[in-house]
Amino acid sequence: MTAAWRAALGLFVLAALALAPARAQPTHIAPKLVAESPAPAPGGETAIALAMTPEKGWHGYWTNGGDAGFGLRVKWNAPEGVTISPFRYPVPEPLILFGMMNHVYEHPYALLAEVKVDDGVVPGTDLTLSGVADWLACTDKVCVPERAVVSVALRAGDGAVTEASRARFDAWRAALPQPLDRAGRWERRGDRLRFAVPLPASTALSDPHLFVETPRLADYAAPQSFSRNGSDLIIETRANGDAAGEVDALLKLADGRGLSIRFDPGAVPPAGEPVAGATDGFDLALFGTALGGAILGGLILNLMPCVFPILSLKALSLARSGGAARVAKVEALAYAAGAVLTALLLGAVLLGLRAAGEQVGWAFQLQHPLSVLVLLLLAVAITLNLAGVYELPSFGGGQALAAREGTAGGFWTGALAAFVATPCSGPLLGAALGATLVLPVWAALPVFGGLGLGLALPFLAIGFVPALRGRLPRPGPWMATFRKWMAVPMGLTAAALAWLLWRQAGGGAALIYPAIAVAMIVILLWHMGSVQHGDGRRWLLAAPGLLLLGSVAGAAAELTPSQRGHAAAGSAFSDAALARARASGKPVFVYFTADWCLSCKANEAGAIERDAVQAAFDKAGVVTLVGDWTNGDPAITRTLAAHGRNSVPLYLWYAPGTADPEILPQILTPTLLTGRAKAE
Question: Where does the record locate the signal sequence feature (predicted)?
Answer without folding.
Answer: 1-24
